[in-house]
Records
---
Amino acid sequence: MTQIEYARAGIVTPQMRIVADKEGIPVEELAVRLARGTIVILRNGMRNSEPVAVGEGLAVKVSASVGTSVEQADPEEEVKKAEVAVRAGADTVMDLSITAMDRTRRRILQAVPRPVGTLPMYQALTEAREKAGSTVKMGVEDLFGVIAQQVADGVDFLALHCATNRDTLESAKRTGRTDCSVSYGGSHLVGWMVHNQMENPLYEHFDRLLTICHTHDVTLSLADGWRPGCLADSLDAAQVREMIVLGELVQRAREQGIQVMVKGPGHVPLTEINNTITLQKRLCAGAPYFVFGPLVTDITPGYDHVNAAIGGAVSALAGADFLCYVTAVEHLRLPNRREVQEGVIAARIAAHAADLTRKPGAWQWDWDMSRARKSLDWEKQLVLAIDQERARSMRQTRSANSGDTCAMCGRFCAMKVVAQYLGKEADVC
Amino acid sequence: MTQIEYARAGIVTPQMRIVADKEGIPVEELAVRLARGTIVILRNGMRNSEPVAVGEGLAVKVSASVGTSVEQADPEEEVKKAEVAVRAGADTVMDLSITAMDRTRRRILQAVPRPVGTLPMYQALTEAREKAGSTVKMGVEDLFGVIAQQVADGVDFLALHCATNRDTLESAKRTGRTDCSVSYGGSHLVGWMVHNQMENPLYEHFDRLLTICHTHDVTLSLADGWRPGCLADSLDAAQVREMIVLGELVQRAREQGIQVMVKGPGHVPLTEINNTITLQKRLCAGAPYFVFGPLVTDITPGYDHVNAAIGGAVSALAGADFLCYVTAVEHLRLPNRREVQEGVIAARIAAHAADLTRKPGAWQWDWDMSRARKSLDWEKQLVLAIDQERARSMRQTRSANSGDTCAMCGRFCAMKVVAQYLGKEADVC
């Protein structure tokens, strides 16, 4: 049985208790939302890893993507990046490898104690190219074989472009787009559909996919192949039409007892973020929303982590539940360890800023920092910093002749004068 | 006569023409808003520098702060930072020096072709400490002397805590705060008021200040001494009470033909940004709003530029007109050149994201980038990047064995298959 089936049967599982404790909510409330599908618990039934819940009323989660490429084919370097991401506070890691795929995935599953997601089509496409000379030669059986293998390996959630069907393709053809399709998996899938004049196998055989996911309670992350890749394509016909199909598939997955979340853009102007989230929540019946960024302008290569932090915070405020990090080097190359670290922290800042508006308990951290600042307790400020190591190293590079106290006031300290005048008690000025 | 007086008299000045051209709006519209006070043109009448306009319906502007400290007392290094800020696209520079003040200010005024602002109280406080042993010994005549000197030197806008009066101080005492006062100038001013049992001289002698500003059409940037320094103090009684006083002073400044803008927080939870901006715009009769960040959480030392980009974008979307950058090292130490550069770019990303929702013309940049991406024109993508040098250096650190084309597809390129299927013409897919 899957977590959603247990919840419907009124059975509280150890995983439900763990996540309810961590989120600080009654397990009964969690179970209600789990049964309804507005919360998912990411955890392959075979893995002995820390379960992470995503969705309605929970802390906003952050995912970091790593993976080998043609240029960087060493699995161990990607394992290191995954470890950096976890240490920086990523709630989940996605392995998007396109070389040495089995080995990298298995090593990451060993090294990461939190949920791991994959995009199985990458492996199926790569194998088709290696075996048959082109990604358009990917066989349907091969694709489902890869999915089954990854589920058996222990992957906790699968990103799959199930809703990018012929109907959405024809819609994109009729209305036109600025950037056709920027989703890597999505583009290749559409290329496959066009070349072979066939329907998307993940759409056509969706029930088969559900059966595979059911074996180990793997969560489906329904990816959007028509994810807008530039502001100009945001909320266009192809995206909205695919969102409607995504909603239909959410319903079918839930009926079969499969946990499901929906992946989102991409690139969205600030004024359209609220509309995008509201529409997704409505059309997909409150399924947890996993957004990629989003970026709020197209012109920031080198600083896309800052850009995505803006989009992530505004999205989470509007109801998005899960932020896929975007690193500084997105659109330029794959990230190194330092850029992975900074990408995770930037996304966590966005998540925490929104948590303050979703979860009263999230305020404690900020209160503690304010008090440490008021009392000029530098050590405590550094310990409380979201990236303690970075904050400490920056603080240490102050000039040697500076002290910890203010050098400005001279004989009378203005701060003390103010504090004494205003102060009624130690903790309130 | 000042720009606001010319506008009221129906006279179009060369400065109005320059900024109207740059903003792409009819000069008559600009003059109407200038006369009403919802736009200011930053430019000391003595300086032969590029005027910059801030306010209603204009592109959101970005300011970078530099300045000597006890640890870094070399004026030339601060001049270099100011130059870095201008090259990175800062619209204005503020010199907040506390040592070698006259020399640093004059060198920055020479080196920066855009508006320069100062916080004259820093100089008056420092001189009091040097001459009389304490900042609380600052003489009222000395303070006004410093202000007059800085105006005569050519400073374009002055940040002054005119509204931090005894009434707001008593309010803060009654209601209490988590962090008393984190504004550096504001705290010292309050310390001075408490120690000397006197009213704020900038409030008491506000008309005298207006007379000085009038001589060279210097814009007043009314700073908020009770700027919340942590989320917990946002929109508290002291802040709101000071905002009311700020509104009264805006009216008095306008009556005397003085251009005026209002400075704002600080630290604001995401859900309170819209309220803060709306309240300021209402209480201060639409005066341009110059916000410091704001930060949307307290816990990000080392990453405050990312945090401030979130707050800045949401603020500008809500109507803020001018973003004071916050660097990564805020709360830790003063920034180096690289951190100045990154701080300016982060604030510009926030400003541009909001411009897209304020100015239709702002979209051209993003459209150009999307088209460069679609056509895989790497050189154009790098030229269009908000920080071309950074993007170029990141792109160059790709592995040597990677080409510019996709290594994934093999014999059939899926992207080409998709583009051919969807494409009706070259530019639209």
Note: The beta strands of chain A are 39-42, 52-55, 61-66, 92-95, 116-118, 157-160, 219-222, 260-264, 289-292, 322-324.
---
Amino acid sequence: MLAAIAPSVPVADISHLVPGFDIDRGARMLEAALPYYPAGSVHMGVVDPGVGTDRRGIALRAARGDHCVGPDNGLLIGAAELLGGVTEVVELQSPAHRLHPTSRTFHGRDIFAPAAAHLAIGLELDRLGRRIDPATLVRLPRTGPEVDVGTIRAAVASINAYGTCQFDVVDADWERAGFAGRSPIVVEVSGGRWTVPHVLTFGETVADEPLLFEDSSGRLSLAVNLGSAALRFGLRVGSWVRFRTGEGGATA
Amino acid sequence: MLAAIAPSVPVADISHLVPGFDIDRGARMLEAALPYYPAGSVHMGVVDPGVGTDRRGIALRAARGDHCVGPDNGLLIGAAELLGGVTEVVELQSPAHRLHPTSRTFHGRDIFAPAAAHLAIGLELDRLGRRIDPATLVRLPRTGPEVDVGTIRAAVASINAYGTCQFDVVDADWERAGFAGRSPIVVEVSGGRWTVPHVLTFGETVADEPLLFEDSSGRLSLAVNLGSAALRFGLRVGSWVRFRTGEGGATA
Amino acid sequence: MLAAIAPSVPVADISHLVPGFDIDRGARMLEAALPYYPAGSVHMGVVDPGVGTDRRGIALRAARGDHCVGPDNGLLIGAAELLGGVTEVVELQSPAHRLHPTSRTFHGRDIFAPAAAHLAIGLELDRLGRRIDPATLVRLPRTGPEVDVGTIRAAVASINAYGTCQFDVVDADWERAGFAGRSPIVVEVSGGRWTVPHVLTFGETVADEPLLFEDSSGRLSLAVNLGSAALRFGLRVGSWVRFRTGEGGATA
């Protein structure tokens, strides 16, 4: 549909590897990628278990000048906030800018791609449908970390292809907990406790050694050098982990 | 090879995920995708277990103005029919439009991509080889459904990444069987019998509930909401399923 | 980063499927692909287990006019030699041609892609950092075959998605061993011995039959028609296999 409507617009394909139905995983991928695209880009994301229900299809403009197109299920909004926040949103209703017949199960092809392609060739956002209130957009529930002096509890937010586990824990949380610069951290997972070095880069550890580091999106991550932290510590997305200072952990 | 011969022609990469040797799966992917490309596109498809044998390499023109390039093993012809049917075919024989030395095991690189790239920059089809009779093209055997009043038997035609099972059953078959609009359907698989709702969209069912629906290519599909019908019903490509009206099935 | 810095430069994405940390697999993929790109292309490769250590980031020019960008860990050099050899190399140090802040774990995004994009829009190589001696570049250790009259021992160099096993054995080795044209070869793997036909193409064998052939990069390969040689013979990358002429093997 992009080639048919906007043949001269270059397309960059971020990924087709988001697991089925995993809106949060898709949202995190968009949050990691979209800020690096040039301002004014048109972004389409489709992870859409509610396709064909009354969940809305939307196109939004972000303050930076980008447009985002996809389902109103929380997939787009985190990335839109990183692009400066949502300034306008429309519900995709224009019959002139969708494929006919319109299937009930493949809106990526029939509604979202035509809308994105039309925006990419200069269509005004308001031509795609009626304005809706940005405050009504669906947001994903995200459980932030529990931070106390000397301890942080956080759920695994995502796990990448290497098995590295990312937490929604950023510098400010680390400071609130009063963790000293690069002291080793005790990592507690159900049934286990390990002292893990807190490093800047994998190279400060040896093969098979676990490590805590700030990843390329500024979030705390637990990895194993040349290995998988998910396998080593038995972690899945949503698993709770406790980080604390001080002694008491065996070396993993 | 595309970048070397046709550097200014945009390339859209549909998929590299067709399982090895599965010509029918590749053909169905092309049938689902090619009609949505702009008329006049050049399409290359390679699923080619017979590479290096006397199976022919071909380039064809379809009535819509598109060209399709690949092996003569049935991969292209279904899609070409959706593009209006084959109007001309040549066997790829021109030494001037292939890579030298020409390997015996990688015609995607050495023969098909050069031919497609040359067509994309305007080469006439006849320059690639001698005309052959479209009636001699290899076709895939496909077993259509068995339709009687009140019952349809069909084999699973394909299974997508979600585990949704597609059948070569279209509206006309449904009507011939006399199935009423949206009544539940009894689905019989070896050893089991379930009553499954016949819906327009996933949203009419709840998580883990099976459903029958017309998919985005107009074919009957059996899915499980947020799950896998292939796993739930133990289905593989080629498995036979019987659909009938009336009572008698447990709810899956 | 490519779209942001070099929006009008076409990008071809070879693969994201190199297994994590497998520099040799990545290097072989680049060796198989880069010679077919047009001379003067800019190639970026990132398989980078040493990211954030003192391993250098480099950009090199090859005799053919291409540039290669990535980590100095052996990933690029084999391909560069196929492009005519390395003529100049710089260490990527220019603050003006990287992303700020620069992460310690994602140099693909922060250092390599910006460097490649700047080269693609015409930046001079020397603007990216200081010249270094090509002789100091890291090279991958590769164990060549052991060739005697009548026998060749070689380790599996790579295994593709079909399970076909490739060896670093080329025509010259075959001749040194004095193997006759297309006689069957005895293949010895730990605990087993099979006589395998030596053919030009898969089509000379039947389904499930093993075969030896020269693959599309000119290397000896062991395959199973419509099957997996890795599974059939229990081979992994690095497994040693002995090939010899003469009788004595059961048919696999």
Note: The interface with chain C takes residues 1-4, 7-8, 10-11, 13, 20-21, 49-55, 103-106, 109-110 of chain B (CB under 8 Å).
